[in-house]
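Hi team,

Filling in the usual template for the complex we talked about on Friday. All components are listed, including any nucleic acid strands or ligand strings, so the model treats them as one assembly.

SUBMITTER: L.P.
PURPOSE: interface mapping
COMPONENTS: three
RESIDUES: 1254
SEQUENCES:
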Amino acid sequence: MGKDVPRVEDRQLVTGRTEFIDNLTLPGMLHCAILRSPYPHARITSVDTSAAERLPGVAAVVTGEDARRWTKPYITMPEKWGPYCVAVDKVRFVGEPVAAVAASSRYLAEDALELIRVEYEPLPVVVDPFKALEPESPLIFEENGSNVMYQRLFTWGEVDRAFAEADEVFAETFRWHRVGANPLETFGVISQWDAIEGGLTCWGSFQAPSYMARGRAANLRVPSNRVRFIGQPHGGSFGGKGGARGTDITAMLSRKADGRPVKWIEDRMECLVAGGSQAWDRFYEASLAVKRDGTATGLRIKLVDDLGATAEGFGASGAAKPLASFVGCYAIPAAAYDLTIVATNKLPASPYRGMGPPPHNFVLEQMMDIAARGLGIDPAEIRRRNFIPPDRFPYTIPSGNEYDSGNYEAALDQVLAMADYPRLRAEQVTARAQGRHLGIGVVSTIEPGVFDWGAYAILGARGTGVPEGVTVSIDVWGKVIARVGFPAEGQGQYTLVSQLLADYFGVTLDDVQVVPQDTLSAPPHFGPGGSRLGVAITGAVLGAAGALRTKLVTVAAKLLGAEPDGVELMDGKLRVKAAPERALTVAQVAATMLTRADLLPPDVEPSPEATYVWTAPGRTSADEQGRSKGYLTAANACHLALVEVDIETGQVRILKYYLVDDCGTRLNPATLEGMVQGAVAQGVGAALLEEYVYDDEAQPLTSTYMDYLLPTVHEVPMTEKAALVTTSPFTPLGAKGAGEGAINTTPAALMCAINDALAPLGVRAREVPASPNRLWALIRDAAPPSTPS
Amino acid sequence: MTAQTSRQAARTRQVRVTVNGRQYEATVEARTTLVDFLRAHLGLTGTHVGCEHGVCGACTVLVDGAAARSCIMLAVQADGAELTTVEGLSRDGELHPIQQAFIDRHGLQCGFCTPGFLMSVCELLQHDADPDDEAIADALGGNICRCTGYQQIVESVRLAAAKLREEGGSS
Amino acid sequence: MKPPPFEYAAPTTLEDALALLREHGGDAKVLAGGQSLVPLLNMRLARPAVIVDLNRLPGLDYVRQVDGWLAIGAMTRQRAIERSDLARERQPLLHAATRLIAHPQIRNRGTVGGSLAHADPAAEYPAVALALDAELRVAGPAGERAIPARNFFQTYLTTALDVTEIVTEVRFPTLPQGAGWSFLELSRRHGDFALAGAAVTLSLSSSGMLDGARIALFGVGATPLRATAAEALLTGETPGDALFTHAAQAARDAVEEPLSDVHASAEYRRHLAGVLTRRALTEAAARARGGRAA
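RESULT (copied from the run log):
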């Protein structure tokens, strides 16, 4: 543990042997292609699939009629904004499925799509979320009576008084454009319907197989004990793999094709236009109440979140999660959140790494800088004055979540030292004299980790407890097997499990094998998400290992002629504490349990195996103001970015990037470093490059990677990193959730740096991505009239 | 060449190609992309599909030693060519030094983009045994990774170059 | 995203290639590097009945010096130009532009002739050809003809090529001794299509005055354009910031209908045209004064 070990996943990955879903072929398998609406809003007046059905090689075709008779509309959060998997009666966004084909190849299936005739009656398009809120607006879901998916004002503490009594109030508006996950592997699934047993088996790149399985049982009306999902190792997810519609469509096609397996691999254009690839289409109004010394006394954030045409993607959760870290690292005592989630004819938003805090932090950190600038205080200093001090933890923030531990000032000091902050400020002054515009952004953020359902209670999520289970067993040769429910996604969790068990039972990494289970065989689990899995699986593994150790100790005690409390597990041996030379190896004890039931103590099963299901302790459900202990841990990061803005072109160059991250005990440092850097890259993309654009008729203009710009090696800074460790008092080894990491921080750091560079010009950039065109236009508009542009 | 003359156009065509030293022959629809040919017809599924329009680089293979995006090549264009894919890097279970370097320096997380990167790195190190950071970035600019943020990939390339120089030759 | 069905031919002689184009005319599309065509096929935006693959034609892959010209076979890969010492020494503008084309995988397959014939408004080679007054050799049913670059690029993705013709060679004049050059483009990411770009060469007389400046702008219109008014302003003048700013304004004003898309507005592109012209002139003048051709 804590060491830099080669990952157990890697040999298969570097040789191309890992079985990603598209590498799997089953006997009789067909290939699916999906016909999609070219209209953002239209009635479907007819669908004629006869020519497609007749094309040789086509085995089955499904339409909305099949969806209507075989499936139910999606259950959503908030409720009642769920369509069918294939459009019935109307389409609500460009790219919505209207029919699908299963054929002998994807090539042929796409040929068949061209033979399907669909007649549409276009309806008025809803593209502007503010217009969508107006009473006369056309409705996306007529039955809901308006386009408002959610509207609520939360007030935590004496907000009005804080603002009334403030020395200064700073206010600003911000715009965050749609960005999204885009793992390199798109979604893929193979569905196989069993008409005899009335069951469904699905293989796929599912981020959360058990939840997908549950959803299919409900949607497709299949008995839940006949739904079996196999999560293949997959090429990233970041919350946005999507896949519900593809799974249901292929299930229906398989049903129609006599139970032949049907594979659908989402292509990249489908992913960008119609997949789980878009999130955070946001309009913010923020205000910060401060005292003259920079202490913030109140924070108001108003958010209008354009969720797109339905709530099927669970993207609304991104508007609830900010409650978990609403005031960031700061001891702001009062806050208000005015939240409106609205439907328009765009792609339904999905979760994306960070789940909502990245835009929220971009707003909060810029407000801190705006206040600093307005009060004449250095931005690092204003943060220092507002940090929750280390002796106040566990600390409950106004929106209800509890931060476990942290030392924000130490992280700030460390990053300022790494960057030699005073020298950078001096460099900035020199550069300005030479006509160069350098900017420094110093930001500090919270990464909530290990979610529970209370975090999403305001949207209707019910219950507490997010289980993660593992079964640990030892075979006759002492090899350790861990049966888990989650597939490999890239975070090295199988390595983590192996490290934990290798240390626990004194074996080598190679002696441990992690075996993923399908959803009918696995213990209760959720899988990766909400920066939970590292902590959760550690808890599960330690719990199972502990239970197994108890069994081994009990058996060893009998075999060694000692009392159980006189026997310990040490360095792979069960030995008598008082006489350590009297010992048995773990393998010997396990073998005895499996082969010599006659030697076992009474009431001990002949089974060197234990299952443990972990969930975060002390979780609460939300009160009437949405307050709950929604996230167990609060990791912290402090980033410092140095940028240069070319004011003639608006281009931004990142010159230096420093960061300190504190995620408690570092279970696998190399993995953590990689995930932080990967999240920095996503943050750079969000801040400078990535944007989904819709025109005035809700037509998507960014349907390829020529238009949606992912950062390459050229655009991502090689960052200088350091770690700080404030352990969590709540988790098994003191680790905090860290999977989402720097995406919570980097957009804020870059925007603060850009604004620091442009402030002398009277420019304030408030929109991401801060493309060169956008920045140039701001600079031009701020220039005095006599300056030639 | 077969009975098809130089002046005839046809829907299908025979393709003879050497991949990782082994010869293959198949008749394919001309519209079949090279990556689909490798994956579906030859069963070499180590090369991955990420975008199908020539941007992400996940499908990178070597065609006569030069890195190429196999999603925007037709299989028929590879007739007579020598291809190298990720499956051709390791030999008898022994990893190629470039593969080992990526493991050692954690140059991968989900691993989906990795075969494409490995092939681009192959080409780079065949031409330049001691690339500086600019040369590394230039060689990798056409491969996208969503997981790593590239830093550990660059470190892996530096280590791979060092390993190969130690071995005294290129792959 | 799979291509629609088509027929495919891979002629092994130029005659056979031309015969195929005569036979199929507008129903055929020529395949050179494929880096532009195959994505369009995958997206089903191009639906030719026939694809004529030029990659089997012998003798179209070379870089040679012929008198004062660099003669390049149409099927020469962009990567070969990048690695050609002859190109780097004799026509550094072309060489520098090549290094900015996309990424290595693209340059390994993309061809010089293909890039010119495709005529993307933001592509590098058409701008270089226009800046240098390159000459394209074209083969067709009536035999060979030469098309000067200024007549070759007609409008968006459209050239003077007939559907029955293919480019066989392009000739770029070599850079005169003592001439300066600069190739600048601005793109969202390294290797992306340029939002705007400028290809500039200029010479200084023995008394240090400008004689023979050439400015080609790209990414800002349906075709690359020569900023001839700006060029005229420079002739006979002493190089300097004020002059170059003045010329840059003229270049900017020469951009009539800039493209506009999700990456850059028309207004921004026009502005960039001016900025990049000024910067390129400055860099070219420094190179000229430095006496280095490369």
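MY TAKE: The longest helix of chain A spans residues 533-560. Chain A has a mean pLDDT of 96.

Thanks, L.
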